[in-house]
Predict the structure.
Amino acid sequence: MVEDKKVRRLFVELNKQPTLSLAAEKASLNVKTARKYRDLGKLPSQLSIAEPRSYRTRPDPFVSVWPKAKSLLKVNPGLEAKSLYAYFQREYPGKFPDGQLRTFQRNVKIWRALEGPGKEVFFPQEHHPGELSASDFTHMGSLGVIIRGEPTPFDHLVYHFVLPYSNWETGTICFSESFESLSEGFQNAVWKLGGVTCNHRTDSLSAAVHKECNAEEFTTRYQALLNHYNVKGERTNPGKANENGDVEKSHHIFKKAVDQSLMLRGSREFESREAYAKFIEKIFWQLNDGRRERFLEECNHLKGLPNQRLDDCKVEKARVSKSSTISVGHNIYSVPSRLIGERVNVRLYSQELEVWFSQKRVDKFPRLRGKGSHHIQYRHIIDQLLRKPGAFKNYLYRDDLFPTTRFRMAYDYLLERNPQKASREYLKILDLAAKENETKVDEALRLLFGRVGGDGGGSGIGSGGADGLISLDLVRVIVESDQKILSPKEVKVADVDLGHYDQLIGSNGNGNRVLSDKKEV
């Protein structure tokens, strides 16, 4: 095909040259070719565009059922072409083979585009600095993060806070979409940011929006949080995550960045939650580094913070039962037995729980997740169990009274040797751990159990014999001796004496060394 640029040159030369032959020569074209394109007045590429056909090359196999197909598609726009085709195959056996499915799907696609119902339109929004912030929770369990000592992946969420204008973001690790997590995450974000925006948008979270009373209003606690920071709340419609699209997109980018960083790190295991939190913080810093210019611009439009934070907790009252426990959030927690019968104030934070009485904090412990769980601390009730050792064997929460695996092994050993006195002896060991040091008692049990493996004890602490392997007296002697007990992490390897190899290796007189005077090495 003659190139378009030659024909364009021809059209230019026709206005300059007196004859067609001269114009054709200038354009490097044959005179006949030049005459052809002069008469047509079109470029070669324009001639190659074929006119669309207005006729079929073969009969339409669906002409008999197409009216019914259209009526079904109009009534049910979400009906898939494959399901509709299977329906016609059942209605007209043998008439529509599987090989015609693609043709039918193409016909349905064309109908949807030309005659079908309109589709939802997403309208890009223009953001202004300091006007809006957005947040949501994102699940992180799929990343497979392991916290040292935990047998399963770290199942957690991140409260994700984003400024749509500058895309600056931060987050807080949490374990549920509770109000406490929402309050802690929001306040952590704005105090780190150093200011607040005019509006804040969330999904229709149960922690923020009434579900039963009035779906149009925020909960009292969430509204109080917004009022404290002088921020106007916004919410998305239920099931419309795209209305909070800025933070939803940030979820994807953030989780991908974390996953890639974990790959580069070479391990998904962390020493502690604190180490993992620092790792997450570093990811946010790296993501925000490229957004500094717009972020600094947005900082000039932020409103100031109040004088202090609100408490990130929910306060409940609970009465201590006769079993020295309280029920909070459908979970059971133990408290010191001296509080039985009293009403205590419980402060529920996102990750921990505090018990207060008479304006003094009595204790605090990790908050349980979900419902129907229990946290019984043996130090709260050990004095009473010593008075009633018979209650230990069938105690409902007995498994909580084994601080480590070795404590459980000790009880099983005592139960096997002397079932009548096992509970009393074990409770005395547990009482020793409460009064002295749980770690030392655990290490003493490890040393005593090591004697079973044939290490001879190596402690010089009584023989005890097989029947006296585990007892309160032996444990107390080891604990009070305050001797250094090596943990599994502190195994010492003696220096290697290379002289032993010289004794095994001799010389054959030819400069070559042989092993046992037989095999050359």
